[in-house]
Design brief:
- This protein is of the alpha/beta class.
- The chain has helices at residues 15-28, 43-50, 75-83, 95-111, 130-136, 156-164, 171-184; strands spanning 2-6, 33-37, 63-67, 86-91, 117-125, 147-153.
- It has a 6-stranded parallel β-sheet with strand order 2-3-1-4-5-6, with helices on both faces.
- It is globular.
Length: 185
């Protein structure tokens, strides 16, 4: 089973949304997915219940999607990073996210297993804005970890998918999710 964790020391960066949507795209590809919601707000669990998404809790589960709390010092975050095969650090193009993402990347680099994969994924990019241009110039030397080749645009349909499900996604949004799923393996 491949453990895919969404980690950040900041709330509102898209951990829950991206974890939920990644799980949906994997299930649509006929993959067996289980979810683990470690955030005390239980947003992922609420989404799964709202959309009647069933977790595969069998021994043949292929992916475990883990949503972590936005507290880097928490035991849950540290243990999850140590166990995960893939660690995704969502980062929005905002000045508040830069420092937290840097701290998160440092922690993940320190705690992750040598054979695990970890990267920063840009989320909620609005093309042409000052901050989206700024993050587009960043490279691996700006943070302790590299950036994913995938990114997510700021799209209303992603938020809408949290209320109505996959059908809310337009073709471009679906393609962004499919490309992201391919990077997870």
């Amino acid at each position: 089973m491949k453990i895919v964790a969404f980690v950040s020391g900041k709330g509102g960066v898209g951990k829950t949304t991206l974890g939920f949507l990644l799980g949906l795209v994997l299930q649509r590809a006929q993959r067996r997915v289980n979810f683990l919601d470690l955030d005390p707000q239980s947003s992922l669990s609420s989404l799964l219940e709202l959309h009647n998404v069933k977790s595969d809790e069998s021994a043949s589960t292929e992916f475990l999607i883990v949503d972590t709390p936005p507290r880097l010092e928490s035991k849950e975050v540290r243990e999850t990073v140590q166990r995960a095969d893939v660690i995704c650090i969502p980062m929005r193009p905002s000045p508040m996210d830069f420092g937290v993402t840097s701290n998160t990347a440092e922690l993940v680099k320190t705690l992750k297993r040598p054979d695990s994969k970890a990267f920063i994924i840009l989320n909620q990019l609005r093309k042409g804005t000052y901050w989206s241009k700024r993050v587009e110039t960043l490279n691996g030397s700006d943070f302790a970890l590299s950036f994913s080749n995938s990114s997510f645009s700021l799209r209303e349909c992603f938020a809408h998918a949290l209320t109505v499900g996959w059908e809310a996604l337009d073709e471009s949004a679906s393609n962004e999710l499919l490309n992201f799923a391919l990077t997870i393996g």
